[in-house]
Each structure stands twice: as structure tokens, then as C-alpha cells.
């Protein structure tokens, strides 16, 4: 199921391992531009390709924008977490593919990610203790078939799934949180 072009949980596409991108050409560039626009239109700060039904390792992220004038997302191709701290920090996360709820997820509070940009340059992104740190991990999870539900302990997962069912029954749409 999709809403506003965003694949909504429990769609099986969100549970798929995504293929690495082997060639960066006009098709990938167009897809990245489409993802940027969809992320902005739905009020997100990150979007992974499987969230729009494309099972490839492509992510767009912009955690700092306040409007169209300063909107300039990073494009990450085949991102990999190459370093992460052992210290976990809780963060209240939302997801465009799981509208209407937030979940407190504990993740490493520092990560280093390597990914290619649209010019095939290997880039390195480092983030600690902020939304960028969480967003990098959240979006990379999507590329490996994991949603925030899979990051929850069983009891919290059951509660979150219940809250999500209620949110969907209310008509929650991508970009809406509690």
C-alpha cells in the first residue's frame, strides 16, 4: 500500500534486502531528485528507496532544512556504517512509512558512514548525538529490510504495532506523528 507515493507498513517491500547500485547514471539521478521532492512534500528528514518501492541502496537525508529556501539533501548511494560507538542513546523516532506514531529507539550515539554521491565520489559522514546520527542509521536500516519496529523489544513492539493500527484507523498519513 502507498500513500502520497510512500510505501506504508506492513508492505513486504519494506522487509527486503536492497541491491547495491552498480552504475550511477541518469536513471539514478532522476530517482534521487524524485526522492528529494517526495521527502520534502511529506515533511520527512530522510527517505530510503524502498520507501518509494525501489529496492536499491539509495538514501536522501536533510535534517537541517526549515523550508524550500534551505533544502539541500545529501544523496547516499550504497551507504555503510563503518564505525559506531558502543554507547546507546534513546531517540524518539518517526517514519514516513509508519505514519501516526513515534517510537523510542536506542541506537549508537556516534556513527561514521561511507557512501557514494551522485558523482561517484566516496564520501564520509560523521554524526554524534543528534538527528543526523539517528537518521543515518534509520535510513540504512531500511536498505536492509528493517523498520523501527524491528529495533524494539518484544513488549514495546506489540504496543507500537497497536498504536500504529489505531493511527492507521484514524487515517494517519506520511509525515504525521503522535
UniProtKB/TrEMBL annotation:
A Pfam family per the record: Pep_deformylase
Cofactor or coenzyme needed: Fe(2+)
Annotated catalytic residues: 139
Cofactor: binding comment: Binds 1 Fe(2+) ion.
Catalytic EC class: hydrolase
InterPro entries assigned to the protein according to its UniProt record, in alphabetical order: Peptide_deformylase, Peptide_deformylase_sf
CDD domains according to UniProt: Pep_deformylase (cd00487)
Residues reported in the UniProt entry to bind Fe cation: 95, 138, 142
HAMAP family given in the database record: Pep_deformylase (MF_00163)
Protein name as catalogued: Peptide deformylase
Organism: Collinsella acetigenes
Gene encoding the protein: def
Amino acid at each position: 500500500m502507498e500513500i502520497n507515493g510512500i510505501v506504508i507498513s506492513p508492505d513486504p517491500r519494506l522487509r527486503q534486502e536492497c541491491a547495491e547500485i552498480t552504475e550511477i547514471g541518469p536513471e539514478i539521478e532522476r530517482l534521487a531528485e524524485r526522492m528529494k521532492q517526495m521527502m520534502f512534500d511529506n515533511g520527512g528528514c530522510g527517505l530510503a528507496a524502498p520507501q518509494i518501492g525501489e529496492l536499491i541502496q539509495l538514501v536522501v537525508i536533510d535534517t537541517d532544512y526549515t523550508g524550500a529556501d534551505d533544502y539541500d539533501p545529501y544523496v547516499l548511494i550504497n551507504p555503510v556504517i563503518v564505525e559506531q560507538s558502543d554507547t546507546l542513546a534513546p531517540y524518539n523516532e518517526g517514519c514516513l512509512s509508519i505514519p501516526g506514531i513515534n517510537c523510542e529507539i536506542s541506537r549508537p550515539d556516534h556513527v561514521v558512514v561511507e557512501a557514494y554521491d551522485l558523482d561517484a565520489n566516496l564520501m564520509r559522514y560523521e554524526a554524534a548525538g543528534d538527528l543526523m546520527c539517528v537518521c543515518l542509521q534509520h535510513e540504512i536500516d531500511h536498505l536492509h529490510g528493517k523498520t523501527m519496529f524491528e529495533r524494539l523489544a518484544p513488549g514495546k513492539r506489540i504496543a507500537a504495532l497497536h498504536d500504529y493500527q489505531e493511527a492507521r484507523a484514524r487515517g494517519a498519513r506520511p509525515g504525521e506523528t503522535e
